[in-house]
Amino acid sequence: MGLQLGDTAPDFVALTTQGTMRFHEWIGDSWAVLFSHPKDFTPICSTELGSVAKLSPEFRRRNVKLIGLSVDSVDDHYEWLDDINETEGVRPGYPIIADTDLTVSKLYGMLAADAEGDAASRCAMDNRTVRGTFVIDPSKRIRLITMYPMQTGRNFAEVLRAVASVQLTTRHPVATPASWQPGDDVMISLLVTDEKAKMLFGDFKAPKPYMRIIPSPA
């Protein structure tokens, strides 16, 4: 069975564009977003790395570290970053893992355990399932997983929104409704009784007994 929400994110040691790192040690007391790519010098992934770079200040504001992964070498990554700077108008400042032996892709269930070959012998289609995004909390638990096909670029503003929701609902017994944005009203968790809800939050709106609405707590 693949990784599930709540699982401990697999630890690993890898070479990155910022040197060799041990993943759990690198995360430290922060949150982390690990997002992967099937190959360097691919068009959609280039736009994604640029998008993440532009959103980096907002992720930092939420104590979130960013780290990319691509199934190519560090030298290739450096050249790719030059291209991204040229086409997207920004040079990513976060590390990018060189997963040339496919170790991390296998650990995170994005490639089969028996996948073979190094980066030079594999094309993007060979690695097309290496399109995951993993949100990891400071206790190293996986809190969100998404998988996208190669042809569909990810919306990292949505990842940022989801991170804001996960962080809020970790601090408070609430849930965020569809299309919620930070600052919008939230709903009290179904695990909280009405009596406890009044103790925690005071009055609340309840158009249905199971829909208890309050302003977003800090």
Structural account:
With about 220 residues, the protein is α+β, with helices and mostly antiparallel strands. It folds into 2 domains: about 15-150, 3-Layer(aba) Sandwich (Glutaredoxin), CATH 3.40.30.10; about 170-215, Antioxidant, Horf6, Chain A, domain 2 (2-Layer Sandwich), CATH 3.30.1020. The chain contains 6 helices and 11 strands. The protein has helices at about 25, 45-60, 75-90, 105, 155-170, 195-200; strands spanning about 15, 20, 30-35, 65-70, 95-100, 130-135, 140-145, 175, 185-190, 205-210, 210-215. A 5-stranded mixed sheet has the order 5-4-3-6-7, covered by helices on one side. A 4-stranded antiparallel sheet has the order 8-9-11-10. Strands 1-2 form a two-stranded antiparallel ribbon. A hairpin with a 2-residue loop joins strand 1 (about 15) and strand 2 (about 20). Helix 2 crosses helix 3 (about 75-90). The longest helix has 19 residues, at about 45-60. The mean pLDDT is about 95.
